[in-house]
């Protein structure tokens, strides 16, 4: 009987100890969770752990508390927000105009870290382009006052299939919006360029009404949103999450004028990252001006020479696609003559009989707001020695999101000044910001350019650096389309 009582007492003491340990663990877990719910001045970084905290304490910010908001019209309405981005709560608010959203801002939560705006279509129809841009700016300012930690993504309106008048206003509005928010650190532009080729909407991405998106178009639209949101929220999806992503549909066979490089040159990186299809690099059947192997091969004239009647212009066009290896590469060091010197010689040779277009990866960083022409060159007209020299046109200052000016970049700017060529990046409708063209583990940069003869620029109405949404460290197929007046 005594043994039975002893055993009973031991069991009671053991159960009480287990209960006490459980309560203590729960209290510790609550303390750790509260540690991450404190407000901080920088919502994208964690608070440093206390010096007396355990070494095993969690050191990463609890990403499950991140919140994002999608504000938009019927296009946004079709987006499913469940599991939209891993470890992020995404809400959706449907509104069709900036004015309507201004009246409802107080209904929103105040702790969103990222807000997407796609509410412009009705404003573009009813207002002038300038009024639309002004209302957008006022709405962004109001959202920033309400959600002071939020960064804004402006999703530019897309073109329609049939309404040409509306398309013209949309294009003007897109250009002004990009220019307006060029220097805003809390605003990102999602240009939805993959829904169109230049200024021509791709029909398979639109429904029968030519206005709303098809299922495939919504997928492309969503891919762009996710790309920018992940960058802002600093979210990295796990491998399991990527494997659950749907594979891209196989599109129709492309003809020789639209050979996509994505399946050939980026197949390995595409498997390792997002499975969304990449924007094509439209490569027309004009061979490269140079073939950089162990020897320099002279270009074949028929491969890159287009007669003037092909474009309906007055002069012939000589086109050269270039890859210039890195300056410190063993291949570059083995060359007898610098590649830029060879390019400059051919520019001098062919510019006498036509206009020049250069495109490709030049591995040169030309900086921002650095002139590639002589400013106020017309003032030299009064000096007799310059009578036979045509003054440079006063073009818009060229901007770039890559502010670094490398040695090669200086050389490229000098070549442009001496030869009368001008860089399209950062000063042409469609890319007033000088979008980044290269993403690598060492950082982002602008290495890839499209360069044209100065007197050809009036014929170029649109220029765009295509974007890919696969991951932070993928090289981009940079130049999607350049259209002339025809």
Topology (elements, then pairings):
Layout: H1 2-35, E1 66-72, H2 74-77, E2 88-94, H3 98-102, E3 114-118, H4 121-126, H5 129-146, E4 151-155, H6 164-180, E5 187-190, E6 196-197, E7 200-201, H7 215-233, H8 239-243, H9 262-265, H10 267-272, E8 291-292, E9 296-297, H11 301-304, E10 305-306, H12 308-311, E11 316-323, H13 330-334, H14 339-350, E12 354-361, H15 407-419, E13 421-423, E14 438-440, E15 443-445, E16 448-453, E17 460-465, E18 479-484
Parallel strand pairs: 1-2, 1-3, 3-4, 4-5, 11-12
Antiparallel strand pairs: 6-7, 8-9, 10-11, 12-16, 13-16, 14-15, 17-18
Helix pairs in contact: 5-6, 14-15
Short description:
By secondary structure, the chain is of the alpha/beta class.
């Amino acid at each position: 009987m005594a043994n039975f009582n002893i055993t009973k007492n031991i069991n009671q003491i053991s159960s009480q100890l287990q209960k006490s340990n459980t309560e203590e663990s729960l209290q510790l877990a609550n303390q750790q969770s509260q540690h991450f719910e404190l407000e901080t001045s920088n919502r994208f970084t964690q608070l440093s752990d206390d010096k007396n905290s355990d070494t095993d304490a969690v050191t990463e910010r609890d990403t499950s508390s991140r919140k994002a908001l999608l504000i938009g019209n019927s296009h946004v309405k079709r987006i499913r927000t469940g599991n939209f981005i891993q470890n992020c709560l995404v809400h959706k608010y449907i509104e069709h105009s900036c004015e309507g959203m201004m009246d409802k801002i107080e209904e929103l939560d105040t702790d969103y870290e990222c807000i997407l705006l796609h509410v412009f279509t009705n404003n573009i129809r009813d207002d002038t382009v300038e009024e639309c841009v002004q209302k957008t700016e006022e709405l962004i300012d109001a959202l920033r006052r309400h959600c002071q930690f939020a960064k804004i993504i402006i999703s530019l309106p897309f073109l329609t299939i049939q309404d040409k008048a509306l398309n013209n206003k949309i294009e003007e509005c897109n250009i002004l919006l990009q220019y307006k928010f060029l220097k805003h650190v809390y605003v990102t532009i999602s240009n939805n360029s993959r829904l169109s080729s230049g200024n021509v909407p791709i029909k398979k991405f639109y429904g029968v009404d030519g206005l709303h998106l098809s299922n495939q178009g919504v997928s492309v639209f969503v891919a762009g949103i996710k790309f920018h949101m992940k960058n802002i929220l600093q979210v990295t999806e796990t491998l399991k999450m990527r494997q659950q992503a749907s594979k891209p549909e196989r599109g129709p066979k492309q003809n020789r004028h639209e050979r996509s490089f994505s399946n050939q040159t980026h197949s390995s990186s595409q498997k390792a990252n997002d499975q969304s299809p990449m924007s094509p690099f439209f490569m027309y059947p004009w061979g490269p001006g140079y073939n950089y192997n162990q020897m320099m091969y002279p270009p074949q004239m028929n491969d890159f020479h287009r007669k003037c009647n092909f474009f309906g212009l007055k002069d012939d066009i000589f086109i050269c696609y270039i890859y210039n290896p890195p300056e410190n590469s063993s291949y570059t060091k083995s060359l007898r003559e610098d590649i830029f010197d060879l390019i400059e010689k051919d520019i001098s040779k062919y510019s006498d009989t036509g206009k020049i277009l250069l495109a490709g990866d030049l591995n040169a960083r030309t900086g921002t707001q650095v002139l590639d022409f002589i400013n106020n060159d017309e003032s030299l007209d009064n000096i007799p020695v310059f009578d036979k020299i045509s003054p440079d046109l006063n073009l818009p200052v060229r901007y770039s999101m890559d502010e670094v000016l490398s040695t090669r970049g200086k050389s490229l700017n000098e070549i442009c000044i001496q030869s009368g060529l001008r860089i399209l990046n950062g000063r042409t409708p469609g890319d007033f910001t000088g979008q980044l063209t290269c993403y690598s583990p060492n950082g982002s940069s602008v290495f890839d350019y499209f360069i044209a003869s100065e007197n050809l620029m009036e014929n170029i109405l649109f220029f765009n650096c295509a974007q890919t949404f696969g991951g932070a460290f993928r090289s981009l197929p940079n130049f999607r389309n350049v259209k002339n007046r025809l």
